[in-house]
Amino acid sequence: MSFVTRGFHGRRRDDDGRLPPGQHLTGDFPVLSAGPTPRIPLDEWELWVATEEGTRHTWSWAELMALAADEPTVDIHCVTSWSKLDTTWRGVSLDTILADVETAADYALVHSYGGYTTNLPLEDLLDGKAWVAYEFEGDDLHPEHGGPARLLVPHLYFWKSAKWVHGIELVLEDTPGFWEQLGYHDYGDPWREQRYQGD
Q1: Is the CB of residue 162 less than 8 Å from the CB of residue 150?
Q2: Distance from first CA to last CA of the chain, Å, rounded?
Q3: What secondary structure letter does DSSP report for 70?
Q4: What is the pLDDT of residues 21-44, one digit of tens each?
Q5: In a domain, 6, yes or no
Q6: FRET label pair with 132: which of 64, 75, 153, 194, CA 20 to 30 Å apart?
Q7: Model-level pTM?
Q8: In this structure, is residue 62 part of a structural domain?
C-alpha cells in the first residue's frame, strides 16, 4: 500500500537546492537598517584598512574605481529569512584590496559610515569570497542598499555584508560587532542557521 499519491513529487522548488534551511525566496530586495541612511558624497568617501600594528592604507573613490573590478553573480540570504538568488554585483575583490597589506591578524572588524560594525574571520574575506561592491544589477548601488559601496560576503547572512563600508580593522582577536553584541551569531552561516548566539 502506497502512502504517497502517484504523481505527487512534493512541493515544487525553484531554488535548485540553493535555499538554506528556514529561508524563503523573494523577488524584492527588502531594505533593513539599524539606523538612518548615511549620504556620503563621492569626493569625501574613503575606504581604509588598518593593521593590528596601526599601519593604515586608504583609497579614495577614484582610487577604488581604478582597481580591477569583478562582476559576481551570487545568492544572498538575510537573517530575517528572505533569500534572493542570482543577484549580480560589480565591485573590487578583497583579495585585490588586501594584496599589499601585511598582517598577522586572523579577524576583521568592519566599520561603516554611521557607526555600524560587524566582525568576520579574515579568511572569509579572501580567496574570492568577498567584495567592496558599488553596483547592483547594472546600476549604482542605492544608498538604502548600502551605496555608494558596501561589503558583499554572500556566503554568510547578509548582516555581515556591511552597508556603507568605510574601513576594515584587522585584529588578532575576534571582536563582536553591532548585531553580534545584541545577540546575533558571531559567524552567521545560513546553511547552519547560525542566526543567534547558541545556534
Answers
A1: yes
A2: 40
A3: B
A4: 999 999 887 776 666 889 999 999
A5: no
A6: 194
A7: 0.90
A8: yes
